[in-house]
Amino acid sequence: xxxxxxxxxxxxxxxxxxxxxxxxxxxxxxxxxxxxxxxxxxxxxxxxxxxxxxxxxxxxxxxxxxxxxxxxxxxxxxxxxxxxxxxxxxxxxxxxxxxxxxxxxxxxxxxxxxxxxxxxxxxxxxxxxxxxxxxxxxxxxxxxxxxxxxxxxxxxxxxxxxxxxxxxxxxxxxxxxxxxxxxxxxxxxxxxxxxxxxxxxxxxxx
Length: 206
Known about the structure:
Layout: E1 3-9, E2 24-25, E3 28-29, H1 30-39, E4 45-51, E5 67-72, H2 79-92, E6 97-102, H3 110-122, E7 128-133, E8 136-144, H4 148-151, H5 161-164, E9 171-175, H6 187-202
Parallel strand pairs: 1-4, 1-6, 4-5, 7-9
Antiparallel strand pairs: 2-3, 6-8, 7-8
């Protein structure tokens, strides 16, 4: 089974007011954390979806043959378009499932990615395996090739969570700690994440 991660890093950062994936967070650019977690996981490929004009100054991760950069020309039309760009690249490379990650969720770790992959490898008949914050499904989210055609028809900022809401699709939801899902949508959120990550380093956590 061939697995591909899709790291969505082509957002417009409207709530932040500036390109957030370039912003420093605990010693590294915000966007580099999700890429690093994906590259250290059991994913066969990591598809990084960026804006067409992104100079990639934030991409400080060492070169890796598994990392494929996909420039999405219509990313400004919404997340669904960025997701479609990543999906098309994944299909071209023979992926049997895709695992969607957001570049502004720096606390998603390699172990979380591998947990979702492990569940799917044991139950490949599932349509999806999702992370869950309490009762709410959130990225990262693994999707089987069985739902590729559905993803390709999404429009605007409609995300793949619409699949989870459809009772026609069968999946499994895995609970993770609430901190895993913190994202950096605003300056205050970025500041809080930085303080949280710095405090974890002080007590010996990665």
